[in-house]
Amino acid sequence: EHLYDKIDRLEAGESLDRETYTELIEKRNEDLAGYLFEKAVQMREKFYGNRIYIRGLIEFTDYCRNDCYYCGIRKGNRRAERYRLGREEILECCKKGYSLGFRTFVLQGGEDPWYTDDRITELVGTIKKKYSDCAVTLSIGEKERESYERYFEAGADRYLLRHETVCEEHYKTLHPPSMSYAHRQECLKNLKDIGFQTGCGFMVGTPGQTAENLADELLFLKEFQPAMVGIGPFIPHRDTPLGNQAPGSAELTLYLLGLIRLLLPKVLLPATTALGTISHDGRERGILAGANVVMPNLSASLVQGKYELYDHKIYTGAENAAELELLRSCMKKIGCEVTVDRGDTKMDTR
Ligand code: SAM
Questions:
Q1: Domains of the chain, start order
Q2: Ligand 1, from 57, 162, 180, 235: best to mutate by most atoms within 8 Å of Cβ?
Q3: How far is the CA of 344 from the centre of ligand 1 (A)?
Q4: Residues enclosing ligand 1, CB less than 6 A?
Q5: CB 127 within 8 A of CB 92
Q6: Residue 192 in contact with residue 349, Cβ under 8 Å?
Q7: Model confidence over 26-57: pLDDT tens digits?
Q8: Are strands 56-61 and 104-109 parallel, antiparallel or unpaired?
Q9: Which of 211, 212, 270, 293 is deepest in the core (most CB within 10 A)?
Q10: How far is residue 348 from each of residues 4, 185, 196, 293, measured CA to CA in Å?
């Protein structure tokens, strides 16, 4: 059977097996990728037209109690410049974002103990009250179920927690023994169960990652049925244990975006900052591979480069009208339109 036929089967909604995904990944070439992207864009258009959703990203703290081997803000990195935005600064980011047309705010940060559940719920409640037509997404790591329940009750709509990898052995090569694969998986199940629009995801090209590993990631996505999927290339950070490793490629990331669009037709799929960092036109190419979300930064001028997950992380902000206009025109050039909309999931999340 031709590899093109396998892509057709995926497009038709068939579940492929591990061997088939592995083959699609290992034997990919430019022509096959072109074929995939065409199908993926058609699929995106079928459910979302040419609309691109924007999420205002607020990177509000880089204190973290974890020590992930790949991450620049890991606890063990003494060189990281630590910062934490306060309540008023975060609300200021929302205000600015709202006036520009953002209707989703993503609060992302390290696992910072100063931001207790009380502080998070107060913040979420305040944002939801002030901006009642907006969605709030949290991305603050692994918590106990009770904490997630409190965030949900306070009004948080969505939660992003990349599973990082569904392959337990691979997980152990990326995280210290203090971090548990099982706990991260449990967190994702809890989030979904509580009713969050839940996002998972993984890095592409982490050291030692195989095509079989990636096939397993795809099988996991199909089974978990997340509302959002965040993927981006692994990019080394000089002050981490994986700092000397090779980065993941834009090309493979794009190919996986295409596969994920066919696998989960309605999924909200961002063209991530990491993709834009590794390739100057990565964001646009991500959209042309099937992505339908971009997450411009609303906190960059306050944070001044300190939220450094990896080396040379680019600034993709939209903190003023001119910057947002630039984003609009980039999207227009590829036939897409940035919309003012919460952009909720179209999937059945229950
Ligand atoms: N602490 C929260 C958590 O664990 O979900 C949210 C912040 S965490 C920094 C967000 C994501 O950044 C991680 O899930 C990881 O996939 C990604 N990331 C961290 N280091 C990276 C690197 N060196 N290259 C690419 N992505 C990276």
A1: 36-339 (3.20.20.70)
A2: 162
A3: 23
A4: 70-71, 108, 110-111, 139-141, 161-162, 164, 203, 232, 234-235, 237, 274, 309-310
A5: no
A6: yes
A7: 999 999 999 999 999 999 999 999 999 999 99
A8: parallel
A9: 270
A10: 30, 20, 11, 19
